[in-house]
Amino acid sequence: MTNLYKKDSPFQVYISFKKYLDVLEHIRYNDRLEYRVNYAESLIERTKNFQELKDGFEDTTLLEKHKDLIRLILADLFPTGLTNNEIKAASIPLSNITFNYTERFKDILKDAGKDFEIELRNIDDNEFYVFCCCLILQSYFKKDIKSTIPLYYDIPNKMGIMKHYKITVNSDFTDVYPTEHAKIPSDDVLDMLLENLDDFQLWKKYFPSKSWVLKGFAIISLVDCTTEVALSDLKSSMIEIDPEDLSPNENLVEIFKSYFDVPQLNFGLMLFDKKDQKLGRLPIYENVFTHHVLDFWINAFDEETRKYTFNNLNHNSKPIVISNVANLDDNIKALPSFSILRDNNINSFMVIPIMKDNELLAIMEFTSPMANSFNGLKLKKMEFFTDMILFSLNRFSFEKNYQIEAIIQREYTSIHDSVVWKFRNEAEKYFNASLGKKMYTLKQISFKNLTPLFGFSDIRSSSEKRFNLMLEDLNQQLDSLHEIFMMINSDSEKYLLALEVFENELNNEIKADTEQRLQRLLREEVHPYLQGKLELKTDREIKTKIKDYFIQVFTQTDLFYANRKSLDESITLVNRKLADMLDESQVKAQQIFPHYYERFKSDGVEHNLYIGHNIAPDLNYTSKDVNKLRYWQLKTMCNMEREFHNFKRDLPIRLDIASLIFVYNEKIDIRFRMDEKRFDVDGAYNSYYEIIKKRLDKAHVKDSSERITCPGKITIVYFGMENQKEYLEYINKLQKKGILQNDVEFLKVEDLQGITGLLALRISLTNSAVED
Questions:
Q1: pLDDT score at 89
Q2: Which residues of the chain register pLDDT less than 50?
Q3: HSE on the CB side for 634, CA within 13 Å?
Q4: Which domain of life is it from (predicted)?
Q5: Which residues are 14's β-sheet partners?
Q6: Which helix (H) or strand (E) holds 609?
Q7: Smallest Cα–Cα separation from 364: which of 320, 325, 411?
Q8: What's the Rg (C-alpha) of the chain?
Q9: What is residue 624's predicted lDDT score, i.e. its pLDDT?
Q10: What confidence score (pLDDT) does residue 607 get?
């Protein structure tokens, strides 16, 4: 069986002219006008030998075979006098099968190209199925319902502009009836279905595939509503801003082509920065928008003239429309920057300032290589969506500022999401008081009786590496200078002697000010001398050497920096990787129990967690929440160590990290310090915790010169046996998962200033991934 619908539907479909032939039969026997009787009788007689036209058929080749007869049958429905005006055809309801076109419809399809295939716009398979079911409800069950979505054809014209046509359907000549396998739902079921239009499976349950018959034909009429559809698409594009993904709508230019009926059109938009008095591009549209006219305008005038023009726009914001660039004043064509228009083949354009409350927000441009593409009438069409442009720009500005605030909140401040509620409560009290013209003093924000968790992943020996790489950089610079001065030979002896002094200091007994003195010598004497050599008629080989030398000089310090730069880049990569992993894992940790979290990047990453009832007073808090977070912390740091092991081989400078967790059972208080805009421990007693944290970094195993931290191992520092038992359980879990090895070391930490009795566990990691 041939399916006249490309998509699944509840119908078996047959093309039939029975209902219209019945109309002709009625005319034949009941009409009083003889010419109409003869006309109807003639058509009926001509169809007698083609019973399939009445019984129905699925073979679409018969439409071509009988096209002349079908045209005669439908002549009353398709008047010859309107064939060049109406866009009309016969069709099967909701299908892409059309035939018996008017001449205007034929011309539209011809312009679209022989490969164009007409299809309904924006209807997916599920919507199509429900539409078909709604047709059953209308035709068979006589339900007074309307189609939920207007139907459109999108057909390009010969210029390539997409034209949009709204479809009206006359289904008077179709029959809908059930097969023997059809289900006949009750009225209650039908009402229930109409309440669930989006539930495709529910509709299919009561109207199974091919369980109903659709027989006949429909008359479709098309109305060109390109402007209205393009305007709607423009509004939708301007409203649809995803704050999580500010990505460009690459269809925007095509929509403008349809709206303005300009086949070769480019669009550009620049935002106006009121503070800096300049136009700026939208980065997300860098490869979509053009800015030819705006670039010409920016380059045609000096900064003072542009600023004067911007200020003048607040009083005179009249758009500029140039139908034909060739008609511009010769003085404008003589400007050097006019080449921007000439090189980009701009022959017609519009420039439109976007204003709000007499202030410039942005400037738009429309350009075309076709002369006379734009005029006053096209500009008039802008009025229909100017408000939407303002809305879109305001919303973009809001989302931009929101994202910037989020970045500041994330990267520069310590107000973590878990504690924002307390700041918000206090700010709301202040705001409400100000509305009532009352005085209100902001209270201090603090949280009491919290359990702290602390850990760090420290980049081992970074200071020593930085010092050695500094020596390498400076020695390479001295060698390079020595080679240059040896080539120059004349009047360079004093510089060679000075370089020799510094070389001896660097390689024997470097002094605290060695680098600074060398830097001063280079800046004040050596570099000016070499720059002078470049300006004189110096030997080409010497000039090349000098240029190569300056390429390697870091301009801010006048020193070679390549090796230290590699180290700094490596440290930055390590910090970023570890911090990102910690932040990502924190999302899951907050689900255990909300807690205050902060982390810091230096030569490594350290983090603080504070958990307690006061952070989330509406939730049930128990000591088990601390245990879960401690296990999460150990597991996360194991994962960070493993990931570091995987990517450290790709670093510019090979580095190692050593990780440590400090376990502290005493409760502490934290307070937000307004002067520093960050949280800190509150009170002298709580400062003991901070002192211990700061001294653990360089701590040694008791009676040993060995550091308690070690690359490839996790060190857990604690005070009592209770913590030892707790963490041995966590270690046992991770050993069973193949994350930690079976080599637990029980250590005593050396006595630190004012701190005694610290113990430590140290254990090696495997390379296995940490499971959730």
A1: 94
A2: 1, 243, 246, 768-772
A3: 29
A4: Bacteria
A5: 215
A6: strand 604-611
A7: 320
A8: 40
A9: 94
A10: 92
* Short-list 257, 244, 289, 249, CA closest to 270: 289
Mean predicted lDDT score pLDDT of the chain: 84
* Partner residues linked to 57 by β-bridges: 15
Which helix H or strand E contains 359, and what residues bound it? strand 359-368
CB atoms inside a 10 Å sphere around CB 202 = 16
Q: What are the backbone angles phi and psi of residue 663, rounded to the nearest 5°?
A: -100, 125
Contacts of 375 (CB under 8 A, 6+ apart): 321, 323
Three-state DSSP class for residue 714: strand
CA-to-CA dists, residue 382 to 260, 285, 353, angstroms? 9, 21, 11
**Looking at residue 771, what is its pLDDT?**
44
Straight-line distance from the first to the last Cα atom of the chain, in angstroms, rounded to the nearest whole number: 54
What type of residue sits at position 156?
Answer: P
Task: Give the integer Cα–Cα distance in Å for 367 and 345.
Answer: 9
Q: Which two tokens stand for residue 299?
A: 């380059």
197 closest CA partner among 151, 122, 128: 128
Neighbour tally for 334: CB within 10 Å? 8
Instruction: Give the model confidence (pLDDT) of 147-195 as tens digits.
Output: 556 788 899 998 888 899 999 989 899 999 999 989 899 999 998 998 8
Which pLDDT belongs to residue 772? Answer: 44
Q: List Cα–Cα distances, 280 to 169, 275, 286, 341, in angstroms.
A: 49, 12, 11, 19
Pairing of strands 11-15, 212-216: parallel
Residue 92: which residues within 8 A CB-CB, separation 6 or more? Answer: 4, 5, 13, 15, 214, 217, 218
H/E run at residue 13? strand 11-15
Number of helices (H), then strands (E), belonging to the chain: the values are 27, 24
Q: Where are the alpha helices (DSSP H) in 508-622?
A: 514-521, 527-535, 540-552, 562-592
Residue 127 token pair: 């919507």
Longest dimension (CA), the chain: 127
User: Which pair of structure tokens corresponds to residue 315?
Assistant: 């009083």
Give pTM, 2 decimals. Answer: 0.51
Are the C-beta atoms of residues 750 and 702 closer than 8 Å to each other? yes
Q: Comparing C-alpha atoms, which of 348, 361, 192 is closest to residue 272?
A: 361
CA-nearest of 663, 644, 678, 652 to 720 is: 663
Which pLDDT score, from 0 to 100, does residue 138 have?
A: 87
DSSP string, 200-253: HHHHHHHS-TT-EEEEE-EEEEEEE-HHHHHHHHHHHHHH---TT-----TTHH
Residue 770 confidence (pLDDT): 43
Q: Angle CA(602)–CA(608)–CA(612) in degrees, nearest 5? A: 170
- For 255, counting Cβ atoms within 10 Å of its Cβ (0-12 exposed, 13-18 middle, 19+ buried), the class is buried
